[in-house]
Specification:
Blueprint: E1 2-5, H1 8-13, E2 20-25, H2 42-52, E3 53-63, H3 65-75, E4 79-88, E5 105-111, E6 129-131, E7 135-138, E8 141-144, E9 151-153, E10 162-166, H4 181-191, E11 197-200, H5 207-215, E12 218-223, H6 226-243, E13 248-251
Parallel strand pairs: 1-12, 1-13, 2-3, 2-11, 4-10, 11-12
Antiparallel strand pairs: 3-5, 4-5, 6-9, 7-8
Length: 257
């Protein structure tokens, strides 16, 4: 696990081509007037993210508002589809509640040079069912349903494009746009192979790194803000130690290989 304290652009420039199986990141959206919320140039960002990601790998970017539009426009044919994170809990935007709907979701844009590799993680706890068919075509001949065994589902379902997870809260929340580790865990499992390499050039609270520790992936990423970098490192150290995973901190955004 390589944590670089430095600029995202410098970090990306130092990475080799196709170094990662998955790039999963949450850059500033540029939708507020806060000093830190300056959206990166979308076209430049996508060119670098796709360069460091394997050709059949996914580039996943959290986005909202006009930043969603900017990324989709810059992506062109590399845009594949969109997921939605529905935030379980209270909505935001209360000050504007009389002017517009309050917000309770963020977009997750799925990009790829080709349709990216996908490793569906079945969800459980749904109602079981038993399905039968009227018949099927075998070798050009119709076979009656009596010869077809019924399909039994024990409560598993393929993933859908709306992911429902609560926002981080309490003492564990120290970053204004912090994402739940459980959500990042799901995304890492869906879009990278076991033992794969994951990149996050705007790692913020370190949730992507935490998900990689939990799922057996390697990680390299960067964070510019020294306060958030230190907080993320402190939060990740016991997790990495418990998993027997080395956690390397770098002063600067050099290559991770």
């Amino acid at each position: 696990m390589d944590l670089h304290r430095g600029d995202a652009w410098d970090f990306l420039a130092a990475q080799p081509d196709a170094a990662f199986d998955l790039t999963l990141t949450d850059p500033p959206f540029g939708i507020t007037n806060l000093a830190w919320d300056k959206a990166p140039d979308a076209a430049r960002l996508l060119d670098e993210l796709h360069r460091v990601t394997a050709r059949d790998g996914a580039v996943l970017i959290f986005a909202a508002g006009k930043f969603t539009q900017a990324v989709m426009n810059a992506a062109g044919k590399r845009f594949r589809y969109k997921l939605v994170w529905r935030k379980i809990g209270s909505a935001t935007g209360g000050l504007d509640a009389r002017r517009r709907p309050m917000r309770i979701h963020e977009d997750i844009l799925v990009l790829g040079e080709t349709m990216p590799r996908y490793f569906p993680v079945m969800t459980t706890g749904h109602a079981p069912y038993k399905a039968s068919a009227r018949g099927e075509c075998v070798g050009g001949h119709w076979r009656a349903a009596g010869a077809i065994p019924a399909r039994v589902n024990t409560g598993e379902r393929y993933p859908i494009d709306v992911l429902e997870f609560p926002r981080p809260s309490g003492k564990g929340r120290f970053h204004p746009t912090q994402k739940p580790v459980a959500l990042l865990d799901r995304l890492v499992r869906l879009y990278s192979p076991e033992g794969g390499r994951v990149c996050d050039p705007f790692f913020g609270s370190g949730s992507t790194a935490a998900a990689c520790i939990d799922t057996g992936r390697s990680f390299a990423g960067a964070e510019l803000d020294p306060t958030y970098f230190a907080a993320a490192r402190r939060a990740l150290e016991p997790r990495a130690q418990a998993a027997g995973v080395p956690l390397r901190a770098h002063a600067g955004a050099g290559a991770s290989r």
